[in-house]
Amino acid sequence: MRAPLSWLREYVELPEGQTGRDVAAKLIAAGLEVETVERLGQGLTGPLVVGKVLAVEELTEFKKPIRWCQVDVGDANGTGEPQNLICGARNFAVGDKVVVVLPGAELPGGFKISARKTYGRVSEGMICSAAELGMSEDHDGIIVLPPEHEVGSDAIELLELVDEVLDIAVTPDRSYCLSMRGLAREAATAYGVPLRDPALIDTPAANEHGPAVEVADPVGCDRFTARAVHGVRPEARSPIWLRRRLEKAGMRPISLAVDITNYVMLELGQPLHAYDRSRLRGTIGVRRAEAGEKITTLDGAVRELDPEDLVITDERGPIGLAGVMGGAETEIADAEQDAETGEVAGTREIVVEAAHFDPVAVARTARRHRLVSEASKRFERGVDPQAASAAAQRAVDLLVLLAGASAEAGVTEVVTPGGPRTVAMAADHPDRVAGVEYGRETVVRRLQQVGCDVYGSDELTVTVPSWRPDLNDPNDLAEEVIRLEGYENLPSTLPRPPAGRGLTESQRAHRRVGRALAGEGYSEVLSYPFVGPGVFDRLLLAADDRARRTVRIVNPLSDEEPRLRTTLLPGLFAALRRNEGRGAQNVALFETGLVFHPRADGTVAVADASAGLSAERRPSSEEIAALDAALPVQPRHAAVVLSGARELDGWWGKGRQALWADAVESARTVARAVGAELRVTRGAYGPWHPGRCAALSVVVDGEEQHVGHAGELHPRVIKAFGLPAGSGAMELDLDAVERAGGRLVTAPAVSAFPVATQDVALVVGSDVPAAEVEAALREGAGELLESLRLFDLYTGEQLGGDAKSLAYALRFRAADRTLTAEEVGAAREAAVAVAAERTGAELRGV
Amino acid sequence: MSAPNKSYDPVEVAALKPEAIDQARDEALSAIAAAGDLEALQEAKIAHTGDRSPLSLANREIGALPPHAKAEAGKRVGQARGAVGKALGARKEELEAERDERVLVEEAVDVTLPGERAPRGGRHPLTTLMERIEDVFVAMGYEVAEGPEVEAEWFNFDALNIRPDHPARTMQDTFFVDAGREPADGAGTRGGSAVGESGMVLRTHTSPVQIRSLLDREPPVYVICPGKVFRTDELDATHTPVFHQVELLAVDEGLTMADLKGTLDHMVRALFGGEGMKTRLRPNYFPFTEPSAEMDMVCYVCRGESVGNPDRPCRTCSSEGWIELGGCGMVNPRVLVACGVDPEKYSGFAFGFGIERMLMFRHNVEDMRDMVEGDIRFTQPFGMEI
């Protein structure tokens, strides 16, 4: 809502010297969001005067037609002689009144005026357009004033060029502030001065002689006031003051009748509609549309109506979308002058509608037809139903005053009676909400300033004003008191929560995972969860892979990516490619986040599970459980992707490229961080190189559970996603890994007896997993084994093509004694024996 | 060694003449002093303390002296030998120290050589900033609560007093989720689901976690809800469709707006440090709080001193003195009712703000896209904590 300060002052006696910024500060403190204070006419100095065109000579020797004019500006130029002016506009004639800026003046934007030679003549100033004066964007010709304005008089005052405009973003609950009346009320309260309420005007009582109206839907429309005027002079134009107020408020002047309805709406907040009575047929009705009905609205669009749309009708059918936009059929006609007779044709009889429509009905219709109007904006948020009669009267008065119309005596008021709304509230409720002792007296005074009637002492009965549909609960009233007393005056205190337990184990684990991966050189990425359907083919997933079953977004930002991720890999791949594209060579990334799996076919939908819920009561535990069971499964995953060097070349020597092994190790890093034991076995799964893919699993409650994969990516995946050759990746279900971890660590007994070291080299088939050999050695070595480490892997011609040698360092130690050579030897032999039995390992001569 | 010669005249033994002993001592001392390295010192040692050295020879002669002369000569020779031995030791120590120093100098390296052998990692600053905020409240006794990102509309809207016709529930703001139990990879079939048909959305705020917290627990409830949220904004320098929020909810007996204000003040002091950090509340409207407010914090850079001071403009707050933080208010009693909490007995306050925005003004991030793209050059400087 744009509020000119000059207009505001009409209803509120603001202290002298208060600038727009001062008023804005007061309104902001009262809770209005004043976005800008625009200073109109800043830098404008006269002389800027009314002139009368005496003579026009058309100059034709230039590229465009130019006029050489003599304009009477009275004594404003000091001589009384006609002013010689060059003008490029053509929308005026001899005898017209125009606006002339004289030498010595300065226009907005630092444009200094002096007599200067142009088009071969000396132009002693300029005839002004609205744009040049900063009035509007209108560059179409110069301003032609109504004839009644006196030659030589000051046009700065006449055109109200100097003003300040407050642009206010009105929150949905404060609909009354979409009017000068509402803003004036706030300003009056903020300054503690009286309000001259423009809605307090005499209105005649309803009678049976007004326009015929029949409201068939009293829920959609609980009030309909109709008035009529005749004898409207079609040639009558909006006076300057009216046009200027509309322009400053951001509306374009159209025609007198339309300007008047807009003006009254801005003033009182009540949207009005004016019908050309000669175009109306029979009774005006209000009802819901019927299927198949259509309407052409004022904007020229033909709209198919929905049976939920509330419409205004006459006997032919819909003539308006109630509260949203009128129809073209009964529109006020543009004035048209007959060239021969000079007579002006146009609308001569007008029916004014001031109605109150259901906010929800208007909101839905506006949304359905994508048609947001000044009227719908107000009805959607709530209009004062009690303002309708006054608004209609105000429009009639202005039509009489400005259009020479005669008001008809008939007054139609169709009203569905509704009592005043009252709220019961303890007098100290605002105190308890704020934590401040305002006292009953202050509470009552503030509520009265808002427009409430207040009764009672400790328990207050508060009748809320008709323009405040947002005041329904004690807290609504408390807010009014607290904001008028000033949010800035609230004290600052701290509550005392019960002693806390800190983060949960899971929350701690997530932090550890992040730190561990970052410590291993991975950088965290937070990708969007949106993916396209084609991504799963590029990941080489099988047709029946679970990851292909996705949750879909109805209104995605991009039609290319309408689904939610079931894997973190596509986001990481995109980030890897982006980094590479920007010249990064060694990139290791990780992400932890939710993925989304739809529930299986046939399970209950969320919509069905929430059908019986209401905001008026707590849902039962069963209802909550049913909702949760219907939502998609949303496990937290952790994933990495890496390429380039894992260790860098440097003065110390050669570095090392990232390998499949680093990807697998990242899974172990994650598992260690959450205290889980990870099992790594040979795997094969879509995105990974079939020979370099590890399957990851954990044991939960004694059962092995598959949690993910790691290794080098499949060359076709690398190609499809444009990744560097040899890139590796890992992804696992972090929730599942967490379930396997988190137990308290049992401290080991640290023995001070000496260690006995034994190395063994075992030759096994090249397809025997090292993890199996290690497991066998561990089992065979028994309790004396303190640690075991693979320190070398050898393949070579000596061994033949299908064998490899694994060299392990075994460390033995006992808790209570120094081990003898025999004991150590026996343990080593036992280890090798089990390895031989399980994996066919043969001891290689060391 | 010769046997004692009792008839030997000491005067006749030249080697034991005091002058000779003094001379041998002086020669030894100057040779020791002149030794430039340990090898030279070794030679001097052999020459002057070895078996054939003058002092050793003199020492040997003492036995030949008559008893009355023995004591004096013994003393003289002993003193000379002692002085030489001491000088040798001292010089040896000196030369050894010199040698050691030389060797260590030779072993010197260029310690300014770079040492980073593995590329560095880093956690995303949005993650660590959320953790930092969590820590402020955990220290006060709050719990950290989490919830699903695909959420039931009842949790995201209805329970928060956001009615079915509220503008927030349109496709302009909210991502709606298809109810479709689609067959595997139904590519090409667009869902015909209308808004709200499935009853599911991508949560538009972390407020549903507040609702879940209230349903899960008996008051008093003090929770902080960090997390990812979704709105249908296109990505640009100041918007992203996927962003992060931290929301707070406190429900207890007798909580007031003053408590809300104090909690906010504490938070900005904890996050931005120092004296003079405080917040400001401005009335606003949210369906889930009543009264509601917009919250600003004093600009932590200029502390408000750039206001009306064109000589000291502040980029962080555009010389406004205040930085917009987010929304807050007293929990609307209707929300308490929807969660089965008695609004006659309990009251609560809540606030929420965007982490992206806070990261922007706390760390001078110019463009929100930097937080989305995953460029390692952006993330790495933030390290492990923020």
Shape of chain A: elongated
Q: Any idea what the radius of gyration of chain B is?
A: 45 Å
Number of helices of chain A: 22
Low-confidence spans of chain A: pLDDT under 50, at least 5 residues? none
Q: Topology as H/E string of chain B?
A: HHHHHEEHEHEEHEEEHEHHH
Major sheet: arrangement of strands of chain B? 1-4-5-9-8-7-6
Number of strands of chain A: 44
Task: Tell me the CATH superfamily of the largest domain in chain B.
Answer: Bira Bifunctional Protein, Domain 2
**N-to-C span of chain A:** 90 Å
Total count of strands of chain B = 9
Helix content of chain B: 25-40%
Question: C-alpha Rg of chain A, in Å?
Answer: 42 Å
Give the name of the CATH architecture of the largest domain in chain B. Answer: 2-Layer Sandwich
Structural class of chain A: alpha+beta
CATH level 1 class label of the largest domain in chain B: Alpha Beta
Largest sheet of chain B: 7 strands, mixed
**Percent strand of chain B:** 15-25%
User: What is the helix content of chain A?
Assistant: 25-40%
* Major interchain interface with per-chain residue totals: A-B, 127 and 113 residues
Strand order of the largest sheet of chain A: 30-33-34-40-39-38-37
Subunit structure (chain B): Tetramer of two alpha and two beta subunits.
Organism (chain B): Streptomyces tardus
GO cellular component, one term (chain B): cytoplasm
Pfam families (chain B): Phe_tRNA-synt_N, tRNA-synt_2d
